[in-house]
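Fold it.
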Amino acid sequence: MVLAEGKPAATIMDATTANVGPFGMCRTMTNPAVAAATAAAMGVLTPVPCVPVTVSWIPMHPKVLIGGKPCLTQDCKLLCAWAGQISITSPGQTKTQVS
């Protein structure tokens, strides 16, 4: 484990639902739960709790590695199978120097 400012640093391998739990509301019709809720509401878009199906991270600094894997930075995006993107809004670290 690598620490930055005393907290674990993340890599592109940290895309499991154990690391990214349910949050917010999903509004995309590609999510079967949203499609079913919308159909039940006679076509009125009906958001459901977001349970992301994570696919992969898009690393923005692929040359900065932790354990041989690109590290995550605040500008990385995690793709969801339902066509969404998850962003890092509070990275937990604010200053790290790579030498």
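The radius of gyration is 16 Å.
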